[in-house]
Amino acid sequence: MAQLHSDVLDLGLTELTESTVLHVLSQEPTTYANVATYTLGNKETPTISAPRAATTGTGREVGISEITDGTATGTGTATHWALVDGSRLLAANTLSAGVAIASGNAFSLSAFTIRIPYPA
């Protein structure tokens, strides 16, 4: 049976706390440069929790707090999010639902988690 100690998972998740900006994007970025191409808005210094046990007991996770004051820099439907630190794309994934973004307005985003599962 595969094993990973919680400390191993936590160190990977702790790297996410170095994120300086959360972006909402029109499609999934594959590189740091793609973030600038697809971004519709951002939130500087998003609140990211310390690593913790997943509520379902399936791994370890961090929580990204709700955003109520994101800055829209483009207009469209955000379908993805990305966390960056100024030179690296640290994490990206699909939003649970599309978010309408209008340039110049604030946007909101529900809280969500990033999970590293225990090995199968």
Short summary of the structure?
This protein is 13% helix and 48% strand. By secondary structure, it is mostly beta strands.
Written account of the structure:
By secondary structure, the protein is mainly beta. Helices cover 13% and strands 48% of the residues. It has two helices and nine strands, in the order αβαββββββββ. The chain has a six-stranded antiparallel β-sheet. Strand 3 and strand 4 form a beta hairpin. The longest helix is centred in the first third of the chain and has 9 residues, at 6-14. The mean pLDDT is 94.
Mean pLDDT: 94
Strand content: over 45%
Structural shape: elongated
Distance from N terminus to C terminus (CA atoms, Å) equals 8 Å
How many H/I helices? 2
Largest sheet: 6 strands, antiparallel
Helix content: 10-25%
Output the strand order for the largest sheet.
7-6-1-2-5-8
Instruction: Compute the number of strand runs.
Output: 9
Helix-and-strand structural type = mainly beta
What is the topological layout?
Elements: H1 6-14, E1 21-25, H2 32-38, E2 39-44, E3 52-53, E4 59-64, E5 67-72, E6 76-84, E7 89-101, E8 106-109, E9 112-117
Antiparallel strand pairs: 1-2, 1-6, 2-5, 3-4, 4-9, 5-8, 6-7
Attribute tags:
single chain; 120 residues; mainly beta; six-stranded antiparallel sheet; three-stranded antiparallel sheet; 9 strands; 13% helix; elongated
